[in-house]
Design a protein that fits this description.
The protein is α/β, with parallel strands linked by helices. It is built from six helices and seven strands, in the order αββαβαβαβαββα.
């Protein structure tokens, strides 16, 4: 991940020079072990912003269309991202995500599955809930707030791990997924609300 670390330093410097880059709650990220970062999605800038906000490398799930772009797709693989089909049950992507967590890495997910056109938090997809329930990862909610205009603020609010022990079970029902995704999205919303206050 040498390329990732080099790029992270460059991108972080860019954000610090051209934006008011603020990160709150970095201490909530475990220094080791599997972690799932769940965040709201407002811009294509969000993945590099998250990568700049925490010290550990993040493996992002990204829409498969991006991997079909010449050169850019190869670049995404190089920095540890992997494709996911949107709007369906992508077993290959889910399997890859579990492998990332099994290797004690950090997985980055935008549960809305697409960027919000209004800036308001949208509905979450069940895949994030499945990973949260069936893995031993710490689930960390993140709120991102910015217009991404030069010299304007980029605020990242990192919350505490979400307790989901009561949902850890062998068989996961669809109603459990619905309930858990609701909990996950509520925790992301809490991070956003705290920045407004």
């Amino acid at each position: 991940m040498k390329l990732y670390k080099t790029l992270r330093r460059i991108v972080l410097t860019y954000f610090q020079l051209f934006f008011k880059f603020r990160v709150k709650g970095k201490e909530n990220i475990p220094s080791s072990g599997p972690v799932i970062l769940i965040a709201n999605h407002i811009s294509n800038y969000d993945p590099p912003v998250l990568a700049s906000a925490i010290d550990r490398p993040i493996r992002f799930m990204a829409k498969e269309e991006l991997f079909k772009i010449p050169l850019f797709g190869a670049f995404l693989y190089k920095v540890g991202a992997f494709p996911v089909k949107r709007g369906g049950n992508d077993r290959k992507a889910i399997k890859q995500a579990f492998q990332v967590l099994k290797e004690n890495q950090v997985l980055g997910i935008f549960p809305e599955g697409t960027r919000s056109k209004t800036g308001q938090l949208g509905k979450g997809m069940p895949g994030a809930a499945l990973l949260a329930i069936k893995s031993d990862a710490e689930i960390i909610p993140v709120g991102i707030q910015s217009t991404y205009k030069w010299f304007q603020p980029i605020h990242i609010n990192i919350g505490r791990p979400i307790p989901l022990d009561s949902y850890k079970q062998e068989k996961v029902k669809s109603e459990d997924l619905e309930e858990v995704i609701g909990i996950l999205m509520a925790h992301i919303q809490k991070q956003l609300d705290e920045m407004k206050g």
